[in-house]
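Morning. Coffee machine broken again, so started the prediction first thing and wrote up yesterday's gels while waiting. Chain of 561 residues, entered below exactly as on the submission form.
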Amino acid sequence: MELTTLAFLALLPILAAGIMLVGFRIPARVAMPITFLLTAIIGYAVWGLSLVTLIASCIQSLFITFDILYIIFSAILLLNLLKYSGAIQVIREGFKDISADRRIQVVIIVWLFGSFIEGASGFGTPAAIVAPLLLALGFPAMAAVMLGMMVQSTAVTFGAVGTPVLVGIRGGLQNSALDAQLATHGLDFMDYIQMVTTNAAILHAIAGTIMPTLMVCMMTRFFGEKKSWREGMEVFPFTLLGGLAFTIPYLLTGIFLGPEFPSLLGALVGIPIMVWVAKKGFLQPSKSWEFPSKNSWPSSWMGKLDPSTETRTATHLSLIRAWAPYLMVVLLLVVTRLSQLPIKSWLSSITIQWDEILDTSISASSAPLYLPASILFTVCLITIYFHRMRAVQVKSAFRESGKMIFGAGFVLLFAVPMVRIYINSGININGLTGMPIVMAEWVAVNVGNVYPLFAPSIGALGAFIAGSNTVSNLMFSFFQFGVAERLMMPTTIIVALQAVGAAAGNMIAIHNVVAAAATVGYLGNEGIVLRKTIIPTLYYLLLVGILGLVAIAIWGNSNTF
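Came back before lunch.
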């Protein structure tokens, strides 16, 4: 069978998923089981995978699914506990008195606070938190959703304490052959992950520094009385500083501490800096910018939710106590990740492992105590006591978090095994290379040395389809790795382009815009929002793609990592 035919068959499940999810708007809970079955059938009938290999791949996927769901549940649980304890309300109120200028509010609330929420929770939560906060502050519903979607960019690759890298890239890429290949260079897989993290952090730091400026300019252009880009540029010194206040510590953290911390620490450093600058009135024009009179707003700007009717939770919490759980997450993560302390080795030594599943070369493992989820869950338990929560509040938080897990879990039970079948498809009786490698060979033959320009778009496509950077990395990391090998390019650069592109794709992810729109009563208008968020998405993908080409040109073609 010729290469083009094999490549098409390998692509067919992904293509089918895209058509179902985007073209026909079939829910993921229906589309992903169909996609899984199609992948299994093609793997069995065309590649010659045995039933044992297919079953072993599914068993392997359960370990990865557990890791993902444990992280999602713990992150969402912490957020819900803070909601019911009144902490989120206190945090919201703390932002109200910083500045009356809407442009300044966007930098601090959307860009910095939203990035912090992404770093701690991920999985679409920034938009779900930021959008209703903006609505409560007097922003139009459409603007709130648009800005909430835009923040899901730079911070996303290292969102949910590094899940898209630690689970997405690792789950999508790690296998025994790669481990052996790395060993010949004196490396292990975590060394490889750190190289990818460094490259991704550099790319994001360059592209992300301009994002607060773009947020503000899009707000003044689409929601200002004068419809002016220039009104956004009037605060360029402030927005540039806001970008740098996040991306500089973000970059340094990615290089020196790893993938768990960049978004968290970048925001924690940036928020107090920019709040102080805003309160001092530095780098700001004398005249504040405001939306037109609410009476003149077109109906398309407005949602069905009136923030004035929002139920307020009586709370005894101070601002410090409200923020304390998130600060504890950062502290505990740092302590448990320092190799100088014995805690890291102890936590990572406790593993659930299955070697040579069903007498195949497929293995799986999980270190549940070392997962960021265990830190998040520990902080959840502390928060219940620290915020003096009532049993009914705790019960409600657990119930809401469990509902979200049920929906996500069902989809992942089919999405992750589909990915693992892809990756393990090289274990076959027909002597064919694996499905991602076949696609990579075809791309290498037909695209050649300009491929880095397109690599981020592949990641964005995955995020657009799946609504998740993590799932996009699971789906496409091995494919990107294979293309890099075929083109003799550094794989760490190409995989980093995948991770960054997948982050950018979150700005147009249908799942995320639906979730954000729901929080402000703007359901049914998702297409209007997407037509606007495609602008920053294209900016991100084009700039990062060009940076990828430059990086390859500087370092040259290489068969090393």
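The mean pLDDT is 88. Going to sketch it on the whiteboard this afternoon.
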